[in-house]
Amino acid sequence: MYLRNKINIKMNLFSVRVITNDVKKLAEFYERVTGVTKVQNIDDFAEIYTEKAILAIGSPKTLGFFEGLDDISPQQNKSMILEFKVKDVDAEFERLKDFLKEKIVQKPKMMPWGNKSLLFKDPDGNLINYFTTVTPEAIKRWG
What we know:
With 143 residues, this protein is of the alpha/beta class. Helices cover 25% and strands 31% of the residues. The model has no long low-confidence stretch (mean pLDDT 89). The strands form two sheets. Strands 1-4-3-2 form a four-stranded mixed sheet, covered by helices on one side. A four-stranded mixed sheet has the order 5-8-7-6. It folds into two domains: 8-64, Signal recognition particle alu RNA binding heterodimer, srp9/1 (2-Layer Sandwich), CATH 3.30.720; 81-143, 2,3-Dihydroxybiphenyl 1,2-Dioxygenase, domain 1, CATH 3.10.180.10.
């Protein structure tokens, strides 16, 4: 990958955890939009495994195992976008547009950095970006 040749990687992003009051609903949403079967062994925690990282979905009860997280509240994200690289963003839009309906923020659109992006929200209001690399520069950068 282009970036790996340019920087010294000291760690890898393994997982992102979304805290929600309704693990079942959010896990089923991500299962539907990703096409990946969720792994859920307990009611308060589920995971969606992708090739590079895991999307973890936990209830507020799971925060009790950590210290210093008293200020975390579900459905309060206003600064982060979960991004998924997909093979064909236009095909994903066609597959999901009826399911997403009012959750679509932006239909597939070319971005200045060479990706075509579809932006939508999950049931908790978290932003999700499905993107496909399009320009030669973006393909070289991201594969």
